Amino acid sequence: MLQTKNYKFWFCTGSQDLYGDECLRHVAEHSAKIVEAFNASGKLPYEVVLKPTLISQASIRETLNAANADDECAGVITWMHTFSPAKMWILGLKEFRKPLCHLHTQFNEEIPYDTIDMDFMNENQSAHGDREYGHIVTRMGIARRIIVGHWASEDVQNKLASWMITAIGVTESSHIRVARFGDNMNNVAVTEGDKVEAQIKFGWEIDHYCVNDLVDYVDAVSAADVKALTDEYYSKYKVILDGRDDAEFRKHVEVQAQQEIGLRKFLEEKNYQAVVTHFGMLGGLKQLPGLAIQRLMADGYGFGAEGDWKVAAMVRLMKIMGSKVKNPKGASLMEDYTYNLVPGKEGILQAHMLEVCPSVADGDVSMRVCPLSMGNREDPARLIFTAKEGPAIATSLVDLGTRFRLIINEVECKKVEKPMPNLPVGTAYWTPKPDFATGCEAWILAGGAHHTAFSYDVTTDQMVDWAEAMGIETAIIDENTNIRDFKNTLRLNEAYYR
Predict the structure, then answer these.
(1) How many CB atoms lie within 10 A of CB 282?
(2) What is the pLDDT of residues 53-96, one digit of tens each?
(3) 278: left (phi over 0), alpha (psi -120 to 50) or beta
(4) Taking a C-beta distance cutoff of 8 angstroms, is the pair 472, 404 a contact?
(5) How far is it, in rounded angstroms, from Cα 368 to Cα 373?
(6) Residue pair 123/82 in contact by the 8 Å Cβ criterion
(7) Most CB atoms closer than 10 Å: which of 147, 162, 190, 317?
(8) Which phi and psi (to 5°) does residue 7 adopt?
(9) How does DSSP assign 170-198, residue by residue?
(10) What is the pTM of this model?
(11) Which of the residue ranges 118-127, 155-164, 449-458 would you say has the lowest mean pLDDT?
């Protein structure tokens, strides 16, 4: 997996000195126990770091600015143990630039009925302090995730783990750099977009290179390195010759190995995490990169076809967000191809001409060399498989001219009824929620593209939180969607986000 930083999350407890030093000692002890329990739970994908109790405007401002400056801090979890006058938080929050979680909890799970007195009430007043703090965060219009419940509960810890994944997506978004080899496909609308606005909104850097800049790297790859990687392919994937001569088949595979090595070196040297190609702009490349791109995606790189830099960045983003999920099922570029309209069996066959990520594969992954009608180059090698079953999301980030919209469709991935032996590409087959007809109509109403960034591991709520942090609208298509309400939501979004 393409590495990210060793991220951590800071735990910041709010209080004040009205109740004396003994109270503050208890606050610090309670916070330390909570953080220790979080880190020992095995449920959180990242470490939580305890910070000293914040009791003044100066300490709050200093801590939050230190979080801004710490490259390994991916976000801050705040909790008001006692009453923390919220005006103290204004300057720090105004300058804070990272993901924020408001954990609305308290140290004790149950009211101590037999012993409770006013000292206990004064010390343990999260119900009071969190409302004061929450008010000022709302008044300042700051996006944050609010998690309510006892800190030791599985539900709270699972929600905190989910928010951490979103926070990593927000933090890493500003580090995504996309290398474009060639431009967008001529006359295609949805792959276009405002790259300047994307950098302002998401932090993405989208650069362009002539394809022959890449060819120089590919041509410089040694024969020994090509042989070694090709041998790895043969050991890892099932070979389907389709009647081709063994030696001729291997030569086609070697081209992809050479391209993978050259592409990988280019991206590593120039610090890119996503790549875009176009079958009509191949310069001196012998094949359209297929197997090479699939392997890069499996290692965590984003990819977009036909110049679609938005999908390339989103695939990279969703791979980052899903990287800490237990037993991940994968993420990939997908493209809507063809429908099954048999009543009761409706669905959409997803694929691409070559470049579907094998991280989503279920079972064997095969290697084939087949003609490609587009690109005017020799037959490219590619990996063939079918995708896993189960729930997933398909997303489309579209540029509406005045704003970006993130469309999120929950889907159910299924097995096709019969093998497709003549289809030489990786495929997925899914039915959109709430049902085929409603899902497709809503997608089209929202302006969704035919390319999607697809993930089994990232949730709708995580992507909604990411979009909120980025200041863009979402259009959600799920089991509760009906067209009348969906149209009204789009109209309200039009007014709010214009």
Answers:
(1) 21
(2) 999 999 999 999 999 999 999 999 999 998 888 999 999 999 99
(3) beta
(4) yes
(5) 16
(6) yes
(7) 317
(8) -70, 150
(9) HHHHTT-EEEEES-PPTT-STT---HHHH
(10) 0.94
(11) 118-127
